[in-house]
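User: Um, any thoughts?
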Amino acid sequence: MRSPRPKVRSDVLTAIIDYESGNLHSAQKAFERMARETGGGEVVVTGEAEVVAGADRIVLPGDGAFAACMSALKGHSGLYDAMVHAVEEKGRPFMGICVGMQLMASWGREYGDTAGLDWVSGEVVRITPAAEALKVPHMGWNDLVLDAAHPVFDGIATGDHAYFVHSYHMVVSDLADRLAHVDYGGDVTAVVGAGTMIGLQFHPEKSQAAGLRMIANFLNWRP
């Protein structure tokens, strides 16, 4: 007999920030699906500062160059400040995805130097595989190597694979902030975390079972 579906909590809101830096359709569908299946609350895609300010969880996606994404985020009236206040002052759980994860760093070195959020000390630099046969961008499936335990990794193990599309990655100042990596002609950062914040270099919405599990874990994370 199938177990009853968990009741969706209407009092918990996850805001996926829309700052016109990527197609959010796949991410929205994946988060909505896991919210329904796990009772993880309501999910909304929004570019409104007041919605982000009042959200219980915040997701920052991103596609493109570091500097362009930071500029776009700051260019939406009040959005950047609302996100920073919610995460830094209110301690709201935060997930950065792809360039959204990279913006958590101190600096981005793509097309010059751009200051990041400085939530994870480190810099975002171009991937330089040791083997010439490995192309950049790093595109496709790769096996995760878990470096530390984290609630978002519940049910995830080393060897589970995730889907990547990127040319730059974060080099952390303190390896304690790197939660997972992959081998791509050398270590490439896959997941970072600090306090109530976690960042995924890969796209969980495109990473099948492992990605969906991490989304579900985030939606029910109580740091």
